[in-house]
Design a protein that fits this description.
This is ATP phosphoribosyltransferase. There is one protein chain. The protein is of the alpha/beta class. The chain folds into three domains: 4-89 and 180-210, 3-Layer(aba) Sandwich (D-Maltodextrin-Binding Protein, domain 2), CATH 3.40.190.10; 92-179, Periplasmic binding protein-like II (D-Maltodextrin-Binding Protein, domain 2, 3-Layer(aba) Sandwich), CATH 3.40.190.10; 213-279, 2-Layer Sandwich (Alpha-Beta Plaits), CATH 3.30.70.120. Helices cover 27% and strands 32% of the residues. The protein has helices at residues 15-24, 55-61, 71-77, 120-129, 163-167, 191-211, 225-231, 260-269, and strands at residues 4-9, 37-39, 45-50, 66-70, 83-86, 92-99, 114-117, 135-138, 154-159, 170-179, 181-185, 213-221, 239-242, 248-256, 273-279. The protein has a six-stranded mixed sheet with strand order 2-3-1-4-11-5. Strands 8-7-9-6-10 form a five-stranded mixed sheet. A four-stranded antiparallel sheet has the order 13-14-12-15. Strand 13 (239-242) and strand 14 (248-256) form a beta hairpin. The radius of gyration is 24 Å and the shape is flat. The structure holds adenosine-5'-triphosphate (ATP), 1-O-pyrophosphono-5-O-phosphono-alpha-D-ribofuranose and magnesium ion (MG).
Length: 285
């Protein structure tokens, strides 16, 4: 039987959370700091530890079948490659920035100027779409220093908190794209491996739904139950169980992490007490 070959980043921003996701979907492997390949103990999967930037070519060649990779790298180096899941971590932007005293306020204002970047294909695509040209300096790291050393008028790089821009006296003037970790796949996968991938996708979806939801339990007087239940979305409808104390019930349900604080405030105002909030490991609908 074939193994599904999954690539993850060997070291860097994506490594830890990729390992964590694999663990959460039941794929246990040894930490790969000193190895390039590991087999899962209980699933037909091999994990390859690679450089993020090299992964698109491996997918294209069919040397690996799937990969956890930054969407920005797929856009830069593998725009032809499909991705099948957004994974919700390593969220960042790829942005244009200029020295904070510059008059430029969009990519258009850099027409005819010099831009330093590690993402030349992405920048070229945006320049072409806007019908402008600029000179690109391709550098692999510390891009934010380029304007300060006179190498470029602006940069295109990853922005997350914005602190690297701030420390280098730069300001963001245009967001080219937003990125997060994704599960990308090889166009060359055979049917046997596609079947393993389908199982993995199902597991990933269950884990991500769980991560985005909270299980809540609360107590309420019976005469307030109708009002409280109206507030709760729930998977189907909330579970209501009688408490030992007469006239009171316990209500259990699942709510989305995003709505969480608003719903808790409303529940309290409608008479809910003893609200417990628990993480959900996996959720299968
Ligand atoms: N500051 C950040 N905040 C959030 N996500 C980020 C940040 N910097 C990078 N990323 C995301 O993590 C990915 C990996 O970044 P990292 O700097 O670890 O490696 P890299 O230099 O892009 O890749 P390689 O593995 O080829 O060395 C990026 O492609 C991007 O998707
Ligand atoms: O907006 P911020 O939160 O400051 O994050 C942005 C910085 O993070 C990344 O660099 P990283 O720390 O990965 O270093 P690298 O250049 O060595 O990859 C990216 O290249 C930016 O420089
Ligand atoms: Mg980096």
């Amino acid at each position: 039987m074939s193994n599904l070959r999954i690539a993850i980043q060997k070291a860097g921003r994506l490594h830890e959370e990729s390992m964590e996701l694999l663990k959460d979907i039941g794929i246990s492997i040894d930490n790969g700091k000193d190895q390039l390949k590991a087999s899962a103990r209980d699933f037909p999967v091999e994990v390859f530890y690679l450089r993020n930037g090299d992964i698109p070519q491996y997918l294209r060649d069919g040397v690996v079948d799937a990969a956890i990779i930054g969407e920005n790298i797929i856009i830069e180096k593998g725009n032809d490659l499909p991705f099948v899941e957004r994974l919700g971590f390593s969220k960042c932007k790829v942005s244009i920035a200029v020295p904070k005293e510059s008059d430029a306020s969009s990519l258009k204002d850099l027409a005819g100027k010099e831009i330093a970047t590690s993402y030349p294909e992405t920048v070229k695509r945006f320049l072409e779409a806007q019908g402008i040209s600029a000179k690109l300096h391709i550098i692999n790291g510390s891009v934010e220093i380029a304007p300060n050393i006179g190498l470029a008028d602006g940069i295109c790089d990853i922005v997350s908190s914005g602190s690297t821009l701030f420390k280098n006296g730069l300001k963001e003037i245009e967001v080219l794209l937003k990125s997060e970790a994704v599960l990308a796949i090889s166009p060359k996968m055979d049917d046997e491996r596609k079947a393993i991938l389908a199982k993995i996708q199902f597991r990933i979806q269950s884990v991500l739904k769980g991560r985005n939801s909270k299980y809540i339990l609360l107590n309420a007087p019976n005469d307030k139950l109708d009002d409280i239940i109206k507030i709760l979305p729930g998977m189907r409808s909330p579970t209501v169980l009688p408490l030992a104390e007469k006239g009171w019930s316990s209500v259990h349900t699942v709510i989305s992490k995003n709505q969480f604080w608003e719903i808790i405030d409303e529940l309290k105002s409608k008479g809910a007490e003893g609200i417990l909030v628990c993480p959900i490991e996996k959720m299968v609908l």
